[in-house]
Amino acid sequence: MSAGAPRRNSIFKQLMSVHWWMAGFYLILYASGITIEQLQGEVSYRELLYAAHKSFGVLVLLLLGWRLLLLLRVWGRKYSKHLPKFTGNWYFQTGLHTGLYVMMLAVPLSGYWLSNAYKANNISLFGIPLPDIFPVNSEVVPQSGDAHGYSSKIFAIAIVAHIIIQHKVVKANWRRLSTWAQKLVKS
User: Are 70 and 18 in contact (CB under 8 A)?
Assistant: First the structure.
């Protein structure tokens, strides 16, 4: 490897890897959440779907912690050399991403609140029981449910805005994925 070549295990690449893992897990969470909302009556897989949804919610919280640590390292390296140019675009991008990070925390935490308000010891990470962080309180179940539903919808809108704004990156990634898929089909 030449002296000017980027390292394969750079912090930025780690950050992007966590980004895509979380994106995939949020897709699973949205699909399972929509399915849960539409379930009517008793179905055999209801409890399994709820358990999986909650486990993926905890998983994205854990990944968010890792992602924030990586982000702080990236920012430390980037801004220790020079401060950013505080343009309107920088404020917009920083504000949008800050909002996305707030929603990445708000959505699973509101789900945790909903589950804890409904019943004690109601959250596990793929079978590993997790402690309650909110008290059981049947009176706040409607509010916690609303918080989880509305924050999920706001987060989805913010994700769509993020995708639209990052259209050049989306196109480049789509081309890479298409090329990779074509090579895979040919072999």
Answer: yes
Give tens-digit pLDDT for 10-38.
888 888 889 999 999 999 999 999 999 88
Helices (H) and strands (E) in the chain, counts: 5, 2
For residue 155, what are its two tokens? 């987060």
Which sign, positive or negative, has the C-alpha torsion 34, 38, 42, 44?
Answer: negative
Say which residue the tokens 């998983």 belong to. 59
What is the per-residue pLDDT across 81-128, written as a single tens digit (0 to 9) for each? Answer: 888 888 998 898 889 999 999 999 999 999 999 999 999 989 999 999
Sequence-separated (6 or more) residues with CB below 8 Å from residue 121: 129, 132
Quick check: 123 and 54 in contact, CB under 8 A?
Answer: yes
Quickly tell me which residue has 């990070």 as its tokens: 101
Amino acid in the structure at residue 168: K
d(CA 117, CA 122): 9
